[in-house]
Amino acid sequence: MSARRRAAIVLGLSLVLPACFVDRGGGPGLDSASATQGTSGTTDDGTATATTDATTASGESSGETIASTSADPTGIDATGAVTDATTGMRGESDDPGQCADEGTSCDDASPCCGGCLSCKGGVCVADDAICGECQVCSTLGACVLAPPDTACGGVIDCAGVVWGLGGPYEDLCFAAAGGAQGRCDAGGVCAPPSGEDCEAQGELLLDCSACIKPDHNCVAGLDVGAVSLESVCVINGPSEDCSGDICHNDTYYATVVTLGCDQSGSCETIDEVDCGDYRCTYGPDQCLTTCGDSADCIFAECVDGECI
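Request: output the structure for the sequence above.
Response:
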């Protein structure tokens, strides 16, 4: 190897090797290849030259920070307002450092968390009135569905509604009493009240005694204006429980009465037959016209089949 060639190699190494150990601040992950880049050549007279263009990778320790974002479980936006993921109800803030939970102290500087907690008497309480119909305020301050059958909507007066038949013989027609309110269903919809929701028995509307019609309209939930004597009671005729002949044997007399409903819908005697000296029989109920012995007679003796 010529002396000129050797001199060129030594000169090149003297320039390149120190550059390999320069700390560019790139951190542990920065290798020498990315830290330096060298070029070499010769002059016109053949003298070896070497130059080094050291560059640093991006990400120098200049104070620049790479932002990291992640989902915020509280749902607090840039304005400090909170959005409930289930109901969409927005409150002032759910940041524990800025708002108060249910049952804790609250004031202007520390308002209640959530969308439906109210500061009353210096304490955060759930306020259902803030939520919509068929919703209640949870302990977290979010409006959620009310339990099924929760009262909702308006109230109807049950005094104008039929309660139905009552009494020992189920032949008395009553109105309902009190009031009835709508109820929330499982889907959070308020079902309006109806007459069928009136459960308390009220005042007597009609007394049909034993003269109730089989097809009467004294039905729970119906408007009281729809029922009448003619629609509930049998008028001037027999009914199931008020009809036919009935034998009455007494010590001093015997009669057979015929029952029927009168013009007021009451069960009354519409006909009566005096059996004279004879008693009456049961099934069929009728007066005897002959006798077998004196037991068939009223204060008389049976002689040849005749009570005399």
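Helices lie at 3-19, 32-35, 229-232.
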